[in-house]
Amino acid sequence: MHDSIMNESTDTFDARAMRDVLSHFATGVVAITGIDPDGDKPVGLAANSFTSVSLDPPLVAFCVARTSSSWPRIRTARRYVVNILSEAQENVCRSLAARGGNKFADLSWSPSPSGAPVLDNGLAWLEAELKAEHDAGDHVIVVSRVRHIHAGGEAPLIFYKGKYGRVEHFPLVETITESVR
To answer: Which domain holds residue 46?
Structure first.
């Protein structure tokens, strides 16, 4: 490795340095949404750690901070939605990333097959249910079993080096809606 790349010793870097290095990996952004069974109101959070895990069975995973006050409320719902955000939804991401308050005050949505919030103008969504949670330091890795899927034709919201962005040349995708049993 070049010395210019290897400028931090593995036993001396701090969390800020780690975050700065990881910000060089461009990611999409998702919003995890559900209906809080206690208050019958929508609840959600934003995440950029999302991945496909398995096609058979259909599994996805995302990471949630242990300090999240939204995830405990979402996880009690029977099902929730992983909304893959489009470039037009930066405001949605900012609303759901905020702590406290009515995160859904300015957001429009429609119900998924089980009633969880599908955010308007999204790139795609997956309705899922909790399969497993795994301890991961200051986060929890949530593995979810996918039950319904839908994809539209928008361009993705990208997060890179602490800022939102977009893909310049992105072909439209065909619409896909399917239930997974």
So the answer is: 28-166
* Cα 109 from Cα 11, distance rounded (Å): 46
Of 138, 115, 147, 154, nearest to 28 (Cα)?
Answer: 154
pLDDT digits 0-9 by tens, 41-88:
999 999 989 999 999 999 999 999 999 999 999 999 989 999 999 999
CATH of the domain at 102: 2.30.110.10
Task: Note the Cα 34 to chain centre separation in Å.
Answer: 12
Number of domains in the chain: 1
Q: How many residues does the chain have?
A: 181
Report the predicted TM-score, pTM, of the whole model to 2 decimal places. 0.83
In a domain, 19, yes or no: no
In a domain, 109, yes or no: yes
Closest CA to 157 of 82, 91, 61, 81: 91
Q: Residue 96 burial (CB < 10 Å; 0-12/13-18/19+)?
A: buried
